[in-house]
Amino acid sequence: MDFGTRTTRRPLTPLVLSAVAVVGTLTGFLFTVVDLARFEHDNAFKPAPTPIQRARYTPVARGEWRQVRANLEARLKQRSPLELGAVWATRTGQICGLVNGRGSFGGLTAMTRFYTVDQRPVFHQDVEHVAFQKAWFECRRDQYVMLHEGTMEPGFCGTELGKRRCYLVKNGARVE
Q1: What angle do CA 60, 140, 127 make, to 5 degrees?
Q2: Cα–Cα dist 18/32, whole Å
Q3: In whole angstroms, what is the distance from residue 117 CA to residue 101 CA?
Q4: Residues 6+ apart with CB under 8 A from 169
Q5: Nearest to 136 by CA among 163, 114, 118
Q6: What is the pTM for the complete model shown?
Q7: Measured between alpha carbons, how far is 29 from 16 in angstroms, rounded to an integer?
């Protein structure tokens, strides 16, 4: 008897299981990439209007802005002119932007984001947090017609006073 030359046949089960695991992992990875690409496409910034679209929609948006601005001034009870950041209209006619208004005690509140519903300004404290963030996200990605050029920076550093006092820092050093 020759025991040293005996060959054993390896079972195929581990090889099949490994192949199924690899194919499953690659399929999952492919699905993730496709889903991420679709998500990014659906949530990307919307394209700017053509010159013809802009010429047609700008007068309508400016008329809407006049009404919204009056409602904004009434809501904030301002004696002095509003300090505005960027303000724009979306494709759906909604007006969105930032405003630095005075609080109930007379102090400036810093640049605060708002959007409109039926020409009435809606601020973060007016609605539930998630609802405001979703609405603001839609506003932010659809800047169809710019109505007032200004900062997109919320908070103190977006204000005129903040521009003089705040500065950028990159890698621990002040950037001019």
Answers
A1: 95
A2: 21
A3: 19
A4: 175
A5: 114
A6: 0.72
A7: 20
Write out residues in the chain with pLDDT < 70, as ranges.
1-8, 102-108
Write down the H helix ranges in the chain.
13-42, 51-76, 129-141, 160-165
Question: What secondary structure letter does DSSP report for 4?
Answer: T
Instruction: Give pLDDT, residue 44.
Output: 76
Query: Is the Cβ–Cβ distance between 98 and 154 less than 8 Å?
Result: yes
Pairing of strands 173-175, 168-170: antiparallel
Q: CA 111 to CA 62: how far, in whole Å?
A: 22
Quick check: 158 and 112 in contact, CB under 8 A? no
Instruction: Express each pLDDT in 98-123 by its tens digit.
Output: 998 766 555 567 889 999 999 999 99
The closest alpha carbon to 120, from 60, 74, 84, belongs to 74
Yes or no: say if 134 and 82 are a contact pair by the CB < 8 Å rule. Answer: no
